[in-house]
Design goal:
The complex is a heterodimer of chains A (290) and B (617).
Chain A: H1 2-16, E1 27-36, E2 43-53, E3 58-62, H2 69-77, E4 84-89, E5 92-93, E6 103-106, H3 120-125, H4 133-146, H5 163-176, E7 181-185, H6 193-210, E8 213-218, H7 221-227, E9 230-235, E10 238-244, H8 245-250, H9 255-263, H10 276-289
Parallel strand pairs in A: 3-8, 3-9, 6-7, 7-8
Antiparallel strand pairs in A: 1-2, 1-4, 4-5, 9-10
Chain B: H1 3-11, H2 14-42, H3 68-103, H4 106-121, H5 124-135, H6 139-166, H7 169-176, H8 181-218, H9 229-235, H10 245-273, E1 300-309, E2 312-322, E3 327-331, H11 338-346, E4 354-356, E5 359-362, E6 365-366, E7 377-380, H12 384-387, H13 394-406, H14 410-423, H15 429-432, H16 442-453, E8 460-464, H17 472-489, E9 492-497, H18 500-506, E10 509-514, E11 517-523, H19 525-529, H20 534-542, H21 582-586, E12 592-595, E13 598-600, H22 608-616
Parallel strand pairs in B: 3-9, 3-10, 7-8, 8-9
Antiparallel strand pairs in B: 1-2, 1-4, 1-5, 5-6, 10-11, 11-13, 12-13
Classes of the chains: A alpha/beta (290), B alpha/beta (617).
Chain lengths: 290, 617
């Protein structure tokens, strides 16, 4: 079907396309297609998406649920098999090689992303290269300190920590692997409002300090506006718009981006007056496309 | 480890004590029995062949005049050894077969899974007999057969548990970090499946004991001159009619040991469950004797509501009124008691929770005495998939409301369902009523839930985080629908949300909750001009909006909310509040009216004057 031609075209582009930037820590997703299932029941979650995260920059990836934004993030780190396309870090194809990847992912739910039977220190230490006990312990302490967690808690189990603290530990674990690129998948969605700000500040500061490239996946436009240099918008598996943050938010070109922007609630601003019938038509299309 | 205290706690229950005592007795018997009674058990006494039970021989003597009671005691060691050996084989085999699919590639994994499925489907006893015949008659070959026979079911359990752990985010994280498969199994999977497997194994051990005794009884197990309980039972079989006591000895040993294994499993399960199982509160609280004041106005009237769980108060003296046709929003973080307040109003507080209130009135019904009636109150929950029955069509579920509460006929009820679905903006309601919930999207299901509320004539709609699971675009549609429904039906709305912006779009009045208390109440229009409670201000400042300055860090609230059960002295927000004084830390502020329609619980509320002062700086 279509996917076959995608493989061909991506191969051709890879051969003739511009050479990937050689600067350290850039991520390039080239013509990524992710499909689930086989034969007739197969569904395309991500359809021929190309996206670049230049070194040291933050690219926000927004979209509704089912838009394929999380699948794209998981495909980038190799958690989801890629049907077609390539994941390149610094121009090097990541392929399927096992072992530590230069791309790390921070998950949405900090209650699910830490092993409940493994101490905080043990979780972070897993990301560290093999070395003697003392070096590991000092490295663990350094990374915990970096994310604002008292290294004294490293012998405790995750259940002793709050959601925000766990998310910090998950961040420390990802950073301890010294990633060139960090994928943050809805990292603040499961957190309480008062904690969310602190975690966002932390991510922002660490990104500026350590200079890794970041693909920040979220459904929250206000959050992405705050963090991202560039914004990419996905809808039903397709990348519909991509550009500098200010441009995408102020002069959205695609209709879906405009719809997303109009849905953002603002304190003290009443709901836009829309006929209920028109609203339901949108919902109807949403239902039928599933 | 954190399991130790829980295990100790479980051991202190009567069940735990019984299990501990029984297993100690059995193991001591197994160790010392053969040493002390070995000679007695083997002594052939031709003068006392086939004696009946009595004071000299508790269970009588066998065909060679050996004391059966002594033989039962001595047989404990061999029986236990064989049972544990077979259990070990079952566990090792089960773990290997169960974990392998996660380690091997997809194809080899499927092959193993299919094999295990086939073996599980095969009748167990037949499989064991088959193996026993293959391995030949003998003590250890029988143990081997039984162990292997129990392995597939263990493998199936391990497979399922492993699959669920392998799908978790922390295993995914380990894979991204490049942690090897073997290390993932040892560090991440095995520790997290250990408890259910241990529970399963203890019950399996009981089954293996019985199965092995059965094999020996049939003559396929232990061979003479060795003997286990099954063998002893076999030898006494022909005398069971003459002297039942001779068979009771080995028989009761099997039963009691089997029960002990089961008890051990129960204790493990209890220690396992101790983490989550809440204990019901025993001490009945003296509910306030003061009768409901008749002077209170409004549609929903909550006065000094308390919701208690074992050990802590989740909702603390909440007073709230919702007038006819009014939209009130409750905002707060998780654990603030906002949902419980709404659930208490609907009489839906989950089991161990205890609700007490000086007055809890809806319309002219006292909810302290009666449940809310019929369809005058509608609920919309966060997850519509969980509140709709997946097996019934949407039309059936809607029609049921009219049939039960309004005695409508089937056809009339369905007609109303169609019209209500149309009213919530669902296209082609005549076709849609025949669909089941999974054929609707999240936003559509939430519309269906609202339509269900509209089947009656609701005077109050309680919506608990109705848009949290939805996309921004769909969220705006559902909120618009709630607003439209309200204007059309004149129903009041109680909207619970963690998002102050969502609440401000739909509601007339906002109530901010923190640590189970109302800290501020104000009209929506005042949100933008400035809130009075430092927590409300922090809550608004912590959320980035579309106008937040990108170059300054977001405002944060230091510290964390009080934990359930934590003792609170003074203002609950004081430890996190920059404005807190000594008074805040010692004396709890009361919710007081500062202006008409505005209440705040703070000793030093932010006033407009201080706002200007801060801006001037």
């Amino acid at each position: 079907m279509k996917a076959v031609s995608t493989v061909d075209s991506s191969a051709a582009e890879a051969a003739s396309g511009p050479a990937a930037s050689a600067t350290s820590g850039s991520l390039e997703l080239r013509n990524i297609t992710v499909r689930y299932g086989r034969g007739r029941t197969a569904s395309t979650a991500v359809d021929d998406v190309s996206l670049e995260v230049p070194a040291g920059s933050v690219v926000g990836l927004v979209g509704g649920s089912g838009s394929g934004k999380s699948t794209l993030g998981r495909a980038a780190v190799g958690l989801v098999p890629v049907y077609a396309g390539q994941v390149l870090v610094d121009g090097v194809d990541q392929g399927r090689k096992p072992g530590r990847r230069p791309i790390q992912l921070v998950f949405q739910d900090p209650f699910a992303s830490l092993n409940p039977r493994l101490t905080i220190g043990g979780s972070v230490a897993e990301a560290l290269p093999r070395s003697d006990r003392a070096t590991r312990a000092s490295e663990v302490a350094r990374y915990l300190d970096l994310v604002g967690i008292d290294p004294g808690v490293s012998t405790r189990l995750p259940h002793a920590l709050s959601g925000g603290q766990r998310q910090r530990v998950a961040l420390a674990r990802a950073l301890a692997a010294r990633p060139a690129v960090l994928v943050a998948d809805e990292v603040t969605s499961a957190l309480d409002v008062s904690v969310q700000g602190a975690v966002l500040n932390l991510i922002r500061d660490l990104q500026r300090e350590l200079g890794f490239a970041m693909l920040f996946i979220t459904h929250n436009l206000a959050v992405v506006r705050y963090l991202a240099d560039r914004i990419a918008v996905m809808d039903r598996g397709v990348l519909v718009e991509c550009g500098p943050a200010a441009q995408v938010l102020e002069n959205p070109e695609h209709e879906y981006t405009r719809a997303l922007l109009s849905g953002v609630p603002t304190i003290g601003e009443p709901l836009p007056e829309r006929a209920a019938g028109a609203a339901a038509t949108d919902a109807e299309t949403e239902a039928t496309t599933r | 480890m954190s399991n130790a205290p829980r295990l100790r706690l479980a051991l202190r229950t009567p069940l735990g004590i019984t299990a501990a005592v029984a297993s100690t007795i059995i193991f001591l018997t197994a160790i010392f029995g053969p040493m002390l009674l070995g000679d007695t058990a083997d002594r052939i006494d031709t003068d006392a062949i086939g004696q009946h039970s009595g004071t000299e021989h508790l269970f009588g003597t066998d065909a060679l005049g050996r004391d059966i009671a002594a033989r039962v005691v001595v047989a404990t060691r061999l029986t236990l050894e064989l049972t544990l050996f077979a259990t070990l084989i079952a566990v090792v085999g089960g773990l290997v077969l169960g974990v392998l699919p996660a380690v091997l590639g997809r194809r080899a994994g499927r092959l193993i899974t299919a094999t295990v499925n086939l073996l599980v489907a095969f009748p167990g006893l037949l499989f064991v007999l088959f193996l026993a015949v293959i391995f030949g008659v003998g003590t250890f070959s029988a143990a081997f057969a039984i162990g292997l026979g129990a392995a597939p079911s263990t493998a199936r359990l391990v497979q399922n548990l492993t699959a669920s752990i392998a799908g978790t985010d922390y295993v995914a994280a380990a894979r991204i970090l490049g942690v090897g498969r073997f290390r993932i199994i040892v560090r991440h999977i095995l520790p997290n499946i250990a408890e259910p497997v241990a529970l399963f194994v203890s019950t399996t051990a009981a089954g293996i004991l019985v199965a092995f005794s059965g094999l020996s009884f049939l003559g396929l197990g232990v061979q003479p001159p060795d003997y286990d309980w099954g063998r002893l039972l076999n030898e006494q079989l022909d005398r069971v009619m003459v002297d039942p006591m001779s068979a009771v000895g080995p028989g009761s040993a099997i039963v009691l040991t089997g029960i002990t294994f089961g008890l051990i499993g129960e204790v493990v399960a209890k220690a396992n469950a101790g983490r989550t199982a809440p204990q019901a509160e025993v001490t009945p609280e003296a509910t306030s004797a003061a009768p409901a004041e008749k002077t209170a106005s409004g549609l929903l009237n909550i006065d000094h509501l308390q919701v208690r769980f074992a050990g802590h108060t989740a909702v603390h003296d909440v007073c709230l009124t919702v007038d006819e046709g009014e939209a009130v929003g409750i905002v707060g973080e998780s654990g603030s008691g906002k949902s419980l307040t709404a659930l208490a109003a609907a009489g839906l507080v989950p089991h161990p929770g205890r609700v007490s209130a000086r007055s809890l009135r809806f319309g002219d019904r006292d909810l302290n005495k009666q449940a809310p009636k019929g369809t005058s109150m509608a609920m919309v929950f966060q997850d519509p998939m969980a509140s709709l029955n997946p097996a019934l069509t949407v039309g059936r579920q809607l029609a049921e409301v009219a049939e039960v509460h309004h005695n409508a006929g089937r056809a009339a009820a369905l007609t109303r369902a169609v019209s209500r679905l149309g009213a919530v903006g669902i296209i082609n309601p005549e076709l849609r009523v025949r669909k089941r919930p999974h054929e609707f999207s999240g936003g559509m299901r939430q519309r269906v839930m609202i339509a269900m509320g509209l089947m009656g004539e609701p005077r109050l709609i309680i919506a608990d985080e109705p848009t949290t699971a939805l996309d921004v675009t769909v969220q705006a549609q559902v909120l618009a629908l709630l607003r439209d429904v309200r204007t059309e039906s004149g129903a009041a709305l109680l909207l619970i949300s963690h998002d102050i912006a969502v609440v401000s779009q739909v509601c007339d009045r906002v109530v901010v909750m923190y640590a189970g208390r109302i800290v501020e109440e104000l009209p929506v229009g005042d949100l933008a001009d400035g809130v009075a409670h430092p927590y409300s201000a922090a809550l608004i400042g912590a959320v980035p909006s579309m106008t937040t300055d990108r170059d300054t860090p977001l405002a944060t609230i230091p510290g964390r909310p009080p934990q359930p059960g934590e003792e609170i002295v003074g203002c609950p927000f004081a430890p996190r509040c920059a404005r807190a004084t000594d008074r805040c830390r010692t004396e709890e502020p009361v919710l007081e009216q500062i202006r008409p329609g505005r209440r705040v619980a703070c000793w030093d509320p932010i006033t407009t004057a201080t706002h200007e002062l801060e801006e001037a700086r």
